[in-house]
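Researcher: Here's the sequence for the chain we discussed earlier.
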Amino acid sequence: MTSSEKTPFTLEGKVAVVTGALGLLGRNHCDALAEAGAHVVVTDLDAVSSEDAAAALAKRYGRTSIGVGADITDPASVGALRDAVLRRFGRIDILVNNAAINDKFENPAAAAEESKFEHYPLHLWRKSLEVNVTGTFLCCQILGAEMARRGSGSIINVASTYGIVAPDQSIYRKPDGTQAFFKTAAYPTTKGAVIAFTRFLAAYWGKAGVRVNTLSPGGVENSQDPFFVAAYAARTPLGRMAQPTDYRGAIVFLAGDASAYMTGANLVVDGGWTTW
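Model: Thanks. This is the structure I predict for it:
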């Protein structure tokens, strides 16, 4: 593609780091960025002990993409990630802070009681804060600072509709009227914090040429119980849960020049969930 043919949606030659890249949405974010022409750095905690999975995903995107394991809650690990990217590419253009945890309860029979706010364990609350908030903070501080030093870059912090509105606990209710579990306080609290942090950083780094925006996705269909999928769809104006591919366009838009005059914003892609 010649310079005269380039569109604002091309990411040709850009270097994009995606955290939580081995997850369902992370893989799709990587696919979208690579298809738009970016060199993708596939990063995930699951690749810390063995980088085979990250390297295998990166291999799909050609020889210019790499897989690097990192623990986003560990400053030294994030620093090592930054150094690896700079050694290979010399710069960082795009950072997608996708890594996060969402409470899962191993014992379905006890999930309703364990997930109740009154009983919710403090250690799970702290773990969510550490990964979802501190991890995003550290990646921005360590990787984003390199963007600010160079005078350009785009950071995309992935939040959630539950960072905007409260969970509807009724969609987790089984057909027999019993509660499968309650959506806990940790996830919406941490995702709300990510949105607020985005606004802070957009204002702080605006003059440094670094744009910082949030993507707030809705729920993604991923082998959940049929009763939940039906309840979620019934509460959504478009009448369905998202497919993992539904966020690809938003990621490319926020990453590149198509959103050049956009910072501090929260792009909500939720099938209309937050409209009522």
